[in-house]
Amino acid sequence: MNSVFGSVFWLLVTLGVLVTFHEFGHYWVARRCGVKVLRFSVGFGKAIWKRIGKDGTEYQVAMIPLGGYVKMLDAREGEVDPALAGQEFTAKPVWQRIAIVAAGPGFNLIFTLFAFWLMFLVGKPDVAPVITAAPQSIAAEAGVRTGDRILSVDGHEMATWSDSMDAIANAMLGREPTALRVRGTDGGERLLTLPLQQLPAGQPIDQYFDKLGMKLAPLPAIAATVTPGDPAQQAGMQGGDKLVSVNGKPVADFDDFAQQVKRDAPKSPRFVIGIERAGQPMSLTVTAAWKSEEGRPKQWLIGIRPPQPEQALVRYGPVKAMQASLESTWISTTNTFNMIGKMLTGQASTKNLSGVIGIAQVANASASMGIGWFFSFLAMVSLSLAILNLMPIPVLDGGWLLYYLIELVKGSPVSERAMMAGQYVGLVMLFTLMGLAFYNDIHRFLPS
Question: Where are the domains of the chain?
Fold first, then answer.
């Protein structure tokens, strides 16, 4: 699938699912509290589909898919038929209004648990956290060696590369020394300390990872598979051949081999490749071809693939998956609040924020990696929506909850004037946040 089309498609799927679930929370609780719902809308603006339900509610899908709303019978928006006065929103007790407003984020939290549960049930294909360290990096200073396997980060056991990097990313925000337990290629375990206090404050997380210098261990220089009919196979190369040199230059690993071919092919696509087969050295003359593969842009190829990295798949039965879902939701929630706190205090960069473009790209990438990854992505976005909506910003659910909690304490509603002032402040805050996220998305496309 084309990356732009795929990003748009999976963004629409993501927003459609999560917005519908969020608004259904408001709708369902409002109906249970006896409030008449006039309209249930997924999206804003002009309707592209609508119908009237048996309950009199107008259900619609609108043109702008960046949200949705549930319109209830509300005396603040016009005259209410006396016969329907008991179904009007503001006539309900304050605790019911609190329940209706909190239901949207609450249903997003429920969806988060469900999506994580599905992720653990079907499994999320990943690779084992076998690592190496770039020279003169923080990881190298900490004592990371090529082939080390991460066993735990800050005392929490790790089984996959992505989980390990998520844990380290969260530790980077605190910029404090972090314990890393690894098992070396000799089978011995070591306890290392990543000196993350050396990271400068306020930089984006990708720059922190560059300074950390921890990467997946390089793949060995072996032609694991040779594509029939391609230059390497025509020259006599076979699957399992060890790649020793390119035009007399030694090869350290498969990436080094690929980089040498990519660098030298424009000068001359004809290579003398030294290999080792069954312990015997051999030389093959291979002429690279300028071609496209699997829809990607044209490049110099000889038709070999590296060995697959060690795979890691975490998959549980229904009961264990629910326990893991609860743990993941709790950890993700605390990590999100930790990041928000660090950004508010200036310890973490606001460049870590992503907007619609960033979400669309991640949606497409996660969908292409498999259903388990997409469930994980949905869970994280749903949790983020729940937390964002609970922030005490007027125009968001959290702002209305703040008004109703004040009413609960003082015994009377917040004045209409105070509410209007809060709405203006809230709109400014919200548009500022959206603008910053959009700027970050655009800035990532620009050359550094």
Answer: 94-123+316-448, 125-218+309-314, 222-308
Do 251 and 243 touch, CB atoms closer than 8 A?
A: yes
Q: What is the per-residue burial (b if ≥16 Cβ within 10 Å, else e) of 162-172?
A: bbbbbbbbbbb
The predicted model gives 395-399 an average pLDDT of 87
Q: Rounded distance, CA 242 to CA 224, Å?
A: 9
pLDDT tens track for 240-286:
999 999 999 999 999 999 999 999 999 999 999 999 999 999 999 99
**Does the pLDDT of residue 45 top 70, yes or no?**
yes
Question: C-alpha angle with apex 225: 221 to 231, nearest 5 degrees?
Answer: 90
Q: With a cut of 50, say whether residue 135 has pLDDT above it.
A: yes
Report the DSSP pairing between strands 214-216 and 289-291.
Answer: unpaired
Hey, what CATH class is 222-308 in?
mainly beta
Q: What is the DSSP string of 169-195?
A: HHHHHHT--EEEEEE-TTS-EEEEEE-
Q: Give CATH superfamily name and number for 125-218+309-314.
A: PDZ domain (2.30.42.10)
Residue whose structure tokens are 């999320």 = 124
Query: For residue range 405-431, what is the model confidence (pLDDT) as tens digits?
Result: 988 888 888 887 887 787 777 777 777
Residue 58 bears catalytic tag: no
What angle (nearest 5°) sits at the alpha carbon of residue 172, between those of residues 124 and 106? 55
DSSP string for 21-33 = HHHHHHHHHHHHT
Residue with tokens 């960033």: 358
**Catalytic-role residue among 23, 58, 88, 416:** 23
Instruction: Read off the pTM.
Output: 0.82
